[in-house]
Amino acid sequence: MAAxxxxxxxxxxxxxxxxxxxxxxxxxxxxxxxxxVRYAGKVRAYxxxxxxxxxxxxxxxxxxFDLTGHYLICSVHGAHYLPESGxxxxxxxxxxxxxxxxxxxxDGVVYQVEPIDPSN
Length: 120
Prior knowledge:
The protein has a 3-stranded antiparallel β-sheet with strand order 1-9-8, with no helix packed on it. It has a 3-stranded antiparallel β-sheet with strand order 2-3-4, with no helix packed on it. A 3-stranded antiparallel β-sheet has the order 5-6-7, with no helix packed on it. By secondary structure, the protein is mainly beta. The protein contains no helices and 9 strands. The N and C termini lie close together (11 Å). The protein has a single domain, classed as Rieske [2Fe-2S] iron-sulphur domain (Rieske Iron-sulfur Protein), CATH 2.102.10. The mean pLDDT is 92.
C-alpha cells in the first residue's frame, strides 16, 4: 500500500510546547478530529480524543499543553499525556494512550501521511 501526504501547516506554526494545529483525518469510522504539536523539537500528532472518555482534549482551539508546556492535557478531567508518546502519565486513564497520527516535516511544512488503497 502506497502513502500520500496531505498538508497540515507550515512548520513555523508549531512552537515547542505551544499551540497545536487541529486538522481532520479519515478513519474506518469516518472523519475524526486530530491535532499536531511540537515537543522537544519534533512534530507529534494524535487523534483529538481522550483515552478515558471520547471528548476532544483542547480547552480552546489549539490549546493542548498544560501551563508548563510539558504535558498534553484533557480539558474535561485533567488527564496528562506525554507529548512524545501520547501515553497517559497522570489521571484516570493512566497507562492508556492517545492514538497517533503519522506526520512528517519537510522543507518547512508538516504533512499527514495517509495510506492509499490501490483498489480505489
